[in-house]
């Protein structure tokens, strides 16, 4: 069973406190989720679900909700 | 099967508060005695200078240009200060495609870099979580003409 995006967030940022249901949860929501942290997260998402984002998607996907919606459009429930 | 691109090592990028600070501390530490001039790059929001040690290794000092410089995050947090490894390639687009196929994620689109004569560079985060910079260009452009004190070196 594939992990959820919130599981990946906890894996990458184990010390961070966040609300996985917060629709605004995204880059800058906590200190560790800075721009490089975000690229690390997108890379982890790609590796976990075996897909690739386009450069446009990498630029535009800034929140967990946006990433979840993007994955859903690719047929991935996360 | 695709052939690997023609890569050539160019430099190791190190984040510093200022190039003067970096030169003063790293020149004696790494034995860097030959420096290029200082380049101010408003596109990447960095000030950079390249230095070469006695064995030929090239270091790039990377300092923020302004408070909104992306590289300032690394300085503020003290993370990722040994920042990236850079390679030159005559075909950046081909190299980018190959890197993408190997699971590297682009940190942005190719953008011209002042220190490389306006040639495009592109950064990638690799699967081993090291940042790779790829520079369009077949040959090195660095001209090491200054001493650590900033005085011109005599021609070799």
Structural notes for this entry:
- The complex is a heterodimer of chains A (78) and B (156).
- Chain A contains four helices and no strands.
- Chain A has helices at 5-12, 35-49, 55-60, 64-73.
- Chain A is 50% helix and 0% strand.
- Chain A has one domain.
- Chain A is mostly helical and 78 residues long.
- The relative contact order of chain A is 0.20.
- Chain B has a single domain, classed as 2,3-Dihydroxybiphenyl 1,2-Dioxygenase, domain 1 (Roll), CATH 3.10.180.10.
- The termini of chain B are far apart.
- Chains A and B meet through α2 and α3 of A and α2 and β7 of B.
Q: Spans of chain B with pLDDT under 50 lasting ≥5 residues?
A: none
Biggest protein-protein contact in the assembly: A-B, 15 and 16 residues
Strand residue content of chain A: under 5%
Query: Low-confidence parts of chain A lasting 5 or more residues at pLDDT below 50?
Result: none
What distance separates the N and C termini of chain B? 44 Å
Strand count, sense and closure of the main sheet of chain B? 10 strands, mixed
The domain count of chain B comes to: 1
Strand percentage of chain B lies at 25-35%
Number of domains of chain A: 1
Count the E strands of chain B: 10
> How can the largest sheet of chain A be summarized?
none
- CATH topology value of chain B: 2,3-Dihydroxybiphenyl 1,2-Dioxygenase, domain 1
């Amino acid at each position: 069973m594939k992990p959820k995006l919130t599981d990946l967030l906890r894996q990458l940022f184990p010390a961070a406190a966040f609300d996985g249901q917060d629709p605004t949860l995204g880059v800058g929501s906590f200190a560790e989720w800075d721009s490089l942290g975000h690229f690390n997260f997108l890379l982890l998402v790609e590796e976990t679900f075996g897909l690739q984002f386009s450069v446009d998607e990498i630029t535009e996907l800034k929140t967990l909700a946006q990433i979840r919606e993007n994955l859903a459009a690719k047929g991935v429930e996360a | 099967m695709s052939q690997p691109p023609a890569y050539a090592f160019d430099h190791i990028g190190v984040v510093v508060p200022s190039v003067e600070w970096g030169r003063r501390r790293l020149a004696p530490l790494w034995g860097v005695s030959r420096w290029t001039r200082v380049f101010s790059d408003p596109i990447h929001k960095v000030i950079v200078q390249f230095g070469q040690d006695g064995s030929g290794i090239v270091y790039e000092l990377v300092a923020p240009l302004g408070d909104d410089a992306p590289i300032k995050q690394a300085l503020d947090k003290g993370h990722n200060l040994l920042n990236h490894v850079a390679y030159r390639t005559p075909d950046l687009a081909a190299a980018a495609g190959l890197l993408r196929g190997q699971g590297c994620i682009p940190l942005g689109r190719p953008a011209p870099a002042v220190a490389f004569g306006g040639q495009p560079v592109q950064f990638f985060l690799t699967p081993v979580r090291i940042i790779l910079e790829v520079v369009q260009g077949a040959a090195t452009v660095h001209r090491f003409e200054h001493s650590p004190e900033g005085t011109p070196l005599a021609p070799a």
